[in-house]
Amino acid sequence: MEYSGPPVSHDIPQVVPIDIRLIPTASVAAARAVRLKNFALPIIQPIVKSDQSKKNVVVESNSVSEIVEDSSNFESSVRVYSRNLDNDSDIGCAPLPNDSNHLLGSSAVEDFNDECNAGVSYDNCSNATISDSKESTLKSLENSSENASCEGDEGCVVEPSTQGNRTSAVTFRDSPSIDSIYEESDEDDHAVLPERPVASNDGKKGSCYKCHKRNRFAEKEICLVCGAKYCKNCLVRAMGCMPEGRKCITCIGYPIHESRRGLLGKCSRMLKKQLGNDAVNQIMSSEVSCEVNQLPSYLICVNGKPLSIGELVMLQSCPNPPKKLKPGKYWYDKVSGFWGKDGEKPSQIISAEMAIGYRINEDASNGDTNVLINNRRITKAELWMLQAAGINCEGNVHFWLTADGSCMHEGMNNVLGLLWAKKRVKIVCAALSLPYPSDTSIHDGVDVDKGAAEAIARSLEQKMMNKLLLVGSEQSGTSTIFKQAKIVYSVPFSEDEIQSIKFVIQKNVYSYIGILLEGRARFEEDYLVEMRRQQANEPGPSGDSGSVDERNIYSLSQKLKAFSDWLLQTMISGNLEFIFPAATQMYSPLVEELWKDKAFQATYRRRNELHLLPRAANYFLDRAVEVTQMGYEPTQMDILYAEGITSSNGVASVEFSFPKSSQDWYMESPDENDSAIRYQLIRVHLSSLGENCKWLEMFEDVDLVMFCVSLTDYDEYYEDMNGVRTNKMVASKRVFESIVTHPTLSDKNFLLLLNKLDLLEEKIEGSPLSECEWFEDFTPVMSGHPHRANSNNNPSLAQRACHHVAVKFKRLFASLTDRKLFVSVGTGLEGESVDRALRYGREILRWNDEMQPVNISMNDSSCESITNTIEPIT
Ligand SMILES: Nc1nc2c(ncn2[C@@H]2O[C@H](COP(=O)(O)OP(=O)(O)OP(=O)(O)O)[C@@H](O)[C@H]2O)c(=O)[nH]1
Ligand SMILES: [Mg+2]
């Protein structure tokens, strides 16, 4: 995951105002302010008053000394750090950025730097004791800076703390209002504001934005403003003491990027390791509470009216506030408390009766029914909810719904039903992803038992679930991946499931045997024909052709022939599955006998000629005798290889969470509670999506669509009734097109799973990728050992082919949606591979939350860069 903003070097900060910002008790800021004032500089940025009740940030002494030791290399960013000023405090001041010249003039910078180095470097200040008082702070400033003076009115103001004598605020008089720091957000076209710093790591993917050392897998900490990421060695140097949380020093005072709001207060393990728990708690607390990091009220628009600060405070401090409030346009039904995004169904029920926003618009939620609730036309899902409550919604009806769930006709007094008291409504709400009141206290007089509360909790949990839709073309491997997910994430198969899996596997084995027996009959016939032909060409000494023995090496005994006839008949009539479990007991001795039979063995040796025999048959046929026994228990591998286990026509779903694993190398800001986050993998067979995939509508609330393609499809064909052949990869492409352009999925992230890499590796040597017309332009130039999987610099043919296929799909996706397609390559039969793909899916959801543009290149075509990476479409 990389930041892909405009290419501005981060090491040499962009033309941004040097940000001399309040650090609650840091006299360093005051020192800098004084110096800057002496240089008569315009201080452009507003001052953010950090929570003055907070103590200053503690940087553990080892971190500090590390900084100091390294200070010789540290020239291009402002460094501010201090020790806990509750104790005797040491202060340090670092040189200003060299390229601050545009503000300071080069000599000013040099002077300032000299001063820092000479006067207030950490070492020099280490003996300076700052007591918790304004006077002593100023005194220490005088000590530490020859020319420093503080003529409050002219340049800076040192604000007394509200807490005792602690010096806590330094502000500059000419600062503009705080409003000016809010940049326009995606959702809002507010006035043009000072440009937020942008980050770049000079195109070095996965590298630290400061030292530029590349290690994609090493944890990094992100600046909430510009998105720059720093490795553990550079973190403290780049971010200083973090008075506003994780921000580059040059970003302090700027509002955080809205896409990173979800990260507020959630730091990485790396930060804790570097600074220790106490310091991190302090930093996180400042990050969450400091004023500049708060959501700008005007970016929240309710019923067509941007909120004032007071209204936002009211909204956020009400008993049931909107969760995870982000900038955007919302509607709010003041009477019932229903709350949703403009044009969408309700997403929450918040506290009612708050005086925010204008009157609700009838089309606020884009409803398409004849029913109005509190003047809002409701959506179909809500209509079903009302019906579940037994409320008659025939005709054009206008209801009045109060916060306690009482529903009545508009203008009438009789209550038609109490919505939140009906258990059925809870279930319907959970099923349709509609909100249900979270505060049971609103049920005045309604008996909400423990079970109901649990149901509410479950329904809320359901809503929080991350839903992954798995779909793919025929035989692409979706059910294998689905089963693999169950195995990898330890979701047990129930006893009943195992029993039915056992019968499915046994039925499959009988059908494989049937295919072999059918082949045997053909081989027997062919053999006979050949014998007759030979006899005719080579007549015996008497000159007559004689009679050919009808029996040959493919002939069965009468008993086995009878069994064979019965089995083939049962298969043709489609009754195979109905003979279980009885068949197990009756026919397993015959299978054993058959297996020992020479004719059957001769057929088995020629099984590669039997094209109806699926690949999985090889796995089971070797153990046919064991599998057809009564006492057979399927192993996990058997379940994985078995065909037809996940209902081939339906929808199957499994819930899981990711256990902590070493594969969490994707995690940039690991969430401690990650294993508590639930995911639901929903596998749907293509045939159940109907014509033009119209039933995709049912999956409007999925978070990620995973489309599975078999890499072996490129040289395989379907043949229709008229003998017209279609390349399977081209067929997959068509399915892909219709799914990605389906209106229900128009704003979803897509992850392409290129499956069966193992088979591609086997096949590609004998069958070129260009066999498929879509890949005609695949002309790899191979050097060395072309087919050997090897280092990043010399990818194998299969790896190059994967890359080519991935790029084709990515371009197609971009042309259809103007968005980026994520790709994961792997082998569904390998647990690790499926785990990696699903974890990648999780990362995509996280990135989506962060709205982080991603820009990792597949430039070196290595397997690693092909697998689970995102590339720019070239
Ligand atoms: N060698 C290999 N075989 C695989 C892989 N993934 C799936 N298969 C096999 O490919 C066949 C089809 O896989 P399924 O998982 O049944 O495919 P599907 O998407 O459910 O297809 P339908 O059954 O048509 O719905 C099965 O025999 C699997 O064992 C893989 O990565 N490698
Ligand atoms: Mg299948």
Short description:
The chain has 874 residues and is α/β, with parallel strands linked by helices.
Secondary-structure map:
Blueprint: H1 27-38, H2 61-69, E1 80-82, E2 91-93, H3 101-104, H4 106-119, H5 122-125, H6 134-144, E3 156-160, E4 167-172, E5 221-222, E6 229-230, H7 235-239, H8 269-275, H9 277-289, E7 300-302, E8 305-306, H10 309-317, E9 328-332, E10 338-341, E11 346-349, E12 371-373, E13 376-377, H11 380-388, E14 397-401, E15 406-409, E16 415-418, H12 423-431, H13 450-464, E17 466-472, H14 478-488, H15 495-537, H16 558-572, H17 582-596, H18 598-605, H19 615-621, H20 624-627, H21 636-641, E18 651-656, E19 679-684, E20 704-710, E21 717-719, E22 725-727, H22 728-740, E23 749-755, H23 757-763, H24 797-817, E24 822-825, H25 831-850, H26 863-866
Parallel strand pairs: 7-9, 12-14, 17-19, 17-20, 20-23, 23-24
Antiparallel strand pairs: 1-2, 3-4, 5-6, 7-8, 9-10, 10-11, 12-13, 14-15, 15-16, 18-19, 21-22
Helix pairs in contact: 1-6, 8-9, 11-12, 12-13, 14-25, 15-16, 15-18
The structure holds guanosine-5'-triphosphate and magnesium ion (MG).
Question: Can you describe what's shown?
Answer:
The chain is α/β, with parallel strands linked by helices. Helices cover 34% and strands 11% of the residues. The protein contains 26 helices and 24 strands. Strands 18-19-17-20-23-24 form a 6-stranded mixed beta sheet, sandwiched between helices. The chain has a 5-stranded mixed beta sheet with strand order 8-7-9-10-11, with no helix packed on it. Strands 13-12-14-15-16 form a 5-stranded mixed beta sheet, with no helix packed on it. α15 crosses α16 and α15 crosses α18. The two termini are 18 Å apart. It binds guanosine-5'-triphosphate (GTP) and magnesium ion. Magnesium ion is lined by residues 479, 643, 648.
